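Researcher: Next sequence.
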Amino acid sequence: HDQGIGEKLQGIGAGSIYLSLGCVAVLNRKQEEIDEKVSFAEMRRREENFFRTNPAFLNVPKEYLGSQELVKKLVSIQQDRIRSILPTIIDEVKQKLQETRNILSQHPSAILTENDARIAFIEVLRNYRTEVEKCCKGDYAIDTEKATNGFNPLNTQNWDERIAFHLKMFVKAISTQLHEM
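Model: Next structure:
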């Protein structure tokens, strides 16, 4: 360790560098200690003894020394980050949930019982009957603007099975010709 390490840890004195998250000194294990499989509890005891007896660290506050203090500092930093980011995440989840609900609301409801199936079947039949009745009356779901362009009432070869539609267009064409006279 450098001379004046205690002051540098606290961000004061010559050669110190400001670190926005702060700094904590720890005592790393030597390779021999790793090879000897020294336990972490024993290493914590050695670390505490090192900082308590080393003159360079005698006047340094406890929160700057040791792996236990480093863990506390990291937990505090993590909690601060979670507190600052969590509201945004919650808002994004709520927004995604609402979008998903909107998409699901466009789908038909689930058929879970025999009664639900009966109701759904009756609704399908009712819709089919309504569409057939419309077609019988000549009410087709077609783009009339597109279909009426170039309609020739005398060219019956191009007429298809939509007789009611063609009769309606024929009447409209004759009506237009009469108004032009």
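Model: Residues 110-140 form one domain. The two ends are 110 Å apart (CA to CA).
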